[in-house]
Amino acid sequence: MTTGLAAGVFGLYQHTIMRGLAHTDDRTFIGAFQAMDRAIINPWFMTSFLGALVLTAAAAFLNPGKPWIIAAFVLYLAVVIITMAINVPLNDALKAAGDPDRIADLAAAREHFNEARWSACNLVRTIASTTAFGFLCWALVVRGQTR
Question: Which residues cross the membrane (predicted)?
């Protein structure tokens, strides 16, 4: 369930939030993205984001040799690594630019954020987490068939 919730968040950013923000002016984009980035760091999201990794690892440990669970873990681990290595640093750099009302060159701050890179990496996170969720669902089907 946590993997599915995380996949949903990444997917929502991919097909709705970033597409909507792409059509806004620089001040709106920066202000809205900064606000959403601050808001997403909350117990609900962190439980699904980190819980997906921990619970998938636990499932792999408790069910050794189950390829669908192992594949799901590897995919979701990639999601966490991409998030921490690419998306979070880009988010932090945009927040460090400061209040949009005080940024002298909003276009430069937005360009430095690199929407294209952020979105490309988020697409990878969306596909990987959704596939991981599908693999975990399939592991349940396989388990049901072997009982």
Answer: 40-62, 69-90, 123-142
